Amino acid sequence: MSFSSRWARSAALLTLVPLVLGLTTIGPPAASAQNATPQATPVMDCATVEPINVAFFGFAAANGFAQATWAGVQEAAAEMCATARFFDPNFDSATQVAQIQDAITSGEYQAFVIQSNDGNSVVPVVEEAVAAGIVVVGEFTPIGTDYDSIDPQVEGMTSYVGTSIVDNGEGLAELGIMACASLEVAPCNVAYLQGFQSLPLDNARTEAVLAGLEAAENVEVVASPEGGYTQATGLAAAQDVLQANPDVNVIIGSSQAILGAEQAVEDAGLTGQVALIGNGAPRQAVAAVKEGRWFAVWADAETSAGKEAASVAIRAARGEEVPASVDTTKLLPTPFGTADNLPEDFEGQWDA
User: Fold this and answer.
1) If we measure between CA atoms, which residue out of 329, 257, 308, 263 comes closest to residue 26?
2) Shortest CA distance to 173 belongs to which of 4, 342, 349?
3) What is the DSSP pairing of strand 336-338 with strand 296-298?
4) For strand 336-338 and strand 325-327, is the pairing parallel, antiparallel, or unpaired?
5) Which residues, 6 or more positions from 217, have their beta carbon under 8 angstroms from its beta carbon?
6) How far is 329 from 175, CA to CA, in rounded Å?
7) At what angle do helices 123-131 and 93-106 cross, to 10 degrees?
8) End-to-end CA distance of the chain
9) Is the bond preceding 200 in cis, omega lying within 30 degrees of 0?
10) Which partner from 163, 185, 206, 340 sits 20 to 30 angstroms from 141, CA to CA?
């Protein structure tokens, strides 16, 4: 059964999930960190609940996606009488591991929300955190080596809030195949701009994307360079792709990279001839789909995901029962963000 057919079967139920998740994210005073804390009013009496300090280990403070997660973490903390701090490794896995180790040693934190750059490298320090009695919630990146599951992979780890990276890759491939069908060309030449080839998460996603595309009839993958997560890296990668493959029909990559690729397509005089698909739903990408400039995005609600992850962590730290996993693809009716599927009132939750 294809990934999209699984979604079609349960779409009616999925529309209710954001409401349910919203009810579970209650509670905070000001959270500390790199940017201004969203102002939120506690919905509980802070004098009657245990104070909780949350450490958020994000991809990088300069990354818009991680900032969206962080905004949700802060919002949950502000509503739930907790505090939060952003530890910034700037996409460096070794630095992130050291930061987690330092946070454990400090004894200052009762809960961790970990958006790991390398889900495997953090396993030993996650085990240390669990042994120290710290609640650990993985967010977006599975902690472990299995990128096809949303189940926690480390014994004693509290929860994982995210999606299967393999499902994400397969979904991007399906969007690419849908774009090819809409273009009615054969073969349909597709370029996939990978994230970072050094990251296991990106490698797992890339394998799923390429496998899905290569299995489709009349679809040919003509390039799969590293496109990264900025407009500048996406622009450079797309320029190389277009120079070598001027007949490319579809380009897929992170939404940040595709914003750069859109410029490369325009510069090449191919506007309207190349279907663009972004992974992630920043405001700029959602607008591009709704305006008809892009074919689709893999839709996410990352601030909501960050809020849910922090809510789970805070509630668990206070001894409440929490889910072992939360599938964040269910925060929206469907992740297949074509112009027909994106909710009218959804504008995206972060800036690329």
Assistant:
1) 308
2) 4
3) antiparallel
4) unpaired
5) none
6) 15
7) 10
8) 33
9) no
10) 340
Which CATH fold would you assign to the domain 166-298? Rossmann fold (3.40.50)
For the record, the structure tokens of 199 come out as 């990251």
Least confident piece of the model among 23-32, 51-60, 216-225: 23-32
**Tokens matching residue 169:** 């890759």
Structure tokens of 260?
Answer: 């750069």
**pTM score > 0.90 for this model?**
no
| Dist CA 41 CA 53 (whole Å) | 17
Dist CA 109 CA 62 (whole Å): 24
**Residue at token pair 């739930």:** 80
Secondary structure, 3-state, the chain: CCHHHHHHHHHHHHCCHHHHHHHHCCCCCCCCCCCCCCCCCCCCCHHHCCCEEEEEECCCCCCHHHHHHHHHHHHHHHHCCEEEEEECCCCCHHHHHHHHHHHHHHCCCCEEEECCCCCCCCHHHHHHHHHCCCEEEEECCCCCCCCCCCCCCCCCCCEEEECCHHHHHHHHHHHHHHHHHHHCCCCEEEEECECCCCCHHHHHHHHHHHHHHHCCCCEEEEECCECCCCHHHHHHHHHHHHHHCCCCCEEEEEHHHHHHHHHHHHHCCCCCCCEEEEECCCHHHHHHHHCCCCCEEECCCHHHHHHHHHHHHHHHHCCCCCCCEEEHHHHCCCCEEECCCCCCCCCCCCCC
> Any idea of the CA torsion for 11, 340, 259, 226, to the nearest 10 degrees?
50
User: Which of 15-29, 129-143, 263-277 is least confident?
Assistant: 15-29
| Domain limits, CATH 3.40.50.2300, in the chain | 3-157+302-333, 166-298
Question: What's the order of all strands across the beta sheet hosting 111-114?
Answer: 82-87, 52-57, 111-114, 135-139, 159-162, 325-327
Tell me which CATH code domain 3-157+302-333 carries: 3.40.50.2300
Q: Return the pLDDT at 41.
A: 67
Question: What is the Cα–Cα distance from 119 to 133, expressed in whole angstroms?
Answer: 20
In sequence order, which residues have a C-beta less than 8 Å from that of residue 124 and are 6 or more positions away? 97
| 129 half-sphere exposure, CB direction, 13 A CA radius | 31
